[in-house]
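User: Fold this; tokens only.

Assistant: Input:
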Amino acid sequence: MAEEKKGFFGRLVAGLQKTRETIVSGMDAIFGGFSAIDDDFYEELEETLIMGDLGIATTMKVMDELRNKVRELHITQPGECRQLLMDSLKRQMYLGENAYDFEKRHSVVLVIGVNGVGKTTSIGKLAGQLKDQGRKVILAAADTFRAAAIEQLTEWADRAGVDIVAQHEGADPAAVVYDAISAAKARNADVLICDTAGRLHNKKNLMEELRKIDRVITREYPNTYRETLVVLDGTTGQNALAQARQFMEVADVTGIILTKLDGTAKGGIAVAIQSELGIPVKYIGIGEKIDDLQKFDADQFINALFS
């Protein structure tokens, strides 16, 4: 497990190289180029963080905390701000102790995300990892509107070695979830993961669909733990943040899966999402293999970013 962790950290370091070039190279130049901590120093640092896709609100929060710490600790050397900044970013991304409770309980996980963000792939990887933990997992193919979605999820179910409940393309998603709940009860499953449609261009339809699914779960599976994960593409930066906000309007989002962090210059969005929305990034994806989706670790992420 330690080797697997180390391997993932190495891939994360490599994946964040472009982000590191945008953010950290700029900051290193500031830390090394200024002889005093003054307004110009703070302004340059602020601009570098915003350019790294942390967003204005998050950057202001981090900079206020940095200024307070500099005053409080009587710091005079710009280089000493590096660790303070890292510590502040880690605090912005703290997950909380109950972030992964759904893994240990009888739970229903709804997964939402627009086409192309890696939703189906993330579900397959998550299912495989839960199975490796000894959990009995069933997938519900409730994204019935996208061509090939059912086929793709079936392929991932086979790869992960878990059961899947599916109907035909265009079927009622709530009916698929109903069948999946019946199967989960009959087979005594631990975790039911539901792939749902993510058509943000028509939020009204999506909201109605999610409400129907919610009613079915509440009625048929009343005492299960509920988790709603939104899958976002890390390469889209601030657009991912805007997408997350839209999904929050139609669903009770409890966590984010941030994909495609390998090779993006916009990895700073992971900090912005958590800081600005108050919703934790729970998983990050850096590749196509089943173990390329991992639980988010703020220390690991910031260390990889500043490595």
